[in-house]
Design goal:
With 79 residues, the protein is α+β, with helices and mostly antiparallel strands. It has one domain. It is 18% helix and 19% strand. A hairpin with a 4-residue loop joins strand 1 and strand 2.
Length: 79
């Protein structure tokens, strides 16, 4: 993929000088099917990404209990 082909929305300008962080643009290799390689359902998935950009979980859309369990360890009960 050519960087110039990436939509501008994925190339935000940041900082006081409005620079583009070229290392924050990711793409898949068209010769390899990312869904098959990662075992991700083509119908959709929930991807939990931590603030440090670590992918903490990839779950099917139907795994609401697993998602709730994941966040139970980090969120306070409503009260």
């Amino acid at each position: 993929m050519e960087f110039a082909d990436v939509p501008e929305v994925f190339r935000p300008r940041v900082g006081p000088f409005g620079l583009i962080d070229y290392e924050k643009v990711y793409a898949t290799d068209p010769d390899h099917d990312i869904f098959d390689l990662r075992g991700i359902d083509r119908g959709g998935a929930v991807v939990v990404v931590r603030p440090d950009q670590y992918v903490a979980a990839v779950l099917p859309l139907t795994s609401t209990d697993d998602l709730a369990t994941f966040f139970a360890g980090a969120l306070l009960p409503q009260g």
